[in-house]
Design brief:
The chain is built from 4 helices and no strands. It is an all-alpha fold and about 80 residues long.
């Protein structure tokens, strides 16, 4: 399991960093502390070159939109 993808998925569903930490604890996913979730989010922002969480959200929305549009285009070829 890719923890970064799991965190991004939970963020997209509207969970807070604290809630993500709690979900990881419930699902026995380790590491699961709030500080580790914050560390992963910092890494994710760096990967996407996002300055803030808000900026990251827009980057991910654009990326998902582009991916969906690309799939639609390929379906018509």
């Amino acid at each position: 399991m890719d923890i970064r993808k799991k965190i991004i998925t939970l963020l997209k569903e509207g969970y807070t960093q604290k809630e993500i930490s709690d979900i990881f604890k419930e699902q026995e996913i380790k590491p699961n502390s709030l500080s580790i979730i914050e560390k992963y989010l910092k890494e994710i922002r760096e990967i996407y070159k996002a300055k803030t969480m808000f900026h990251l959200a827009f980057i991910l929305i654009d990326e998902e939109y582009f991916f969906e549009e690309e799939e639609k285009f390929e379906d018509h070829i």
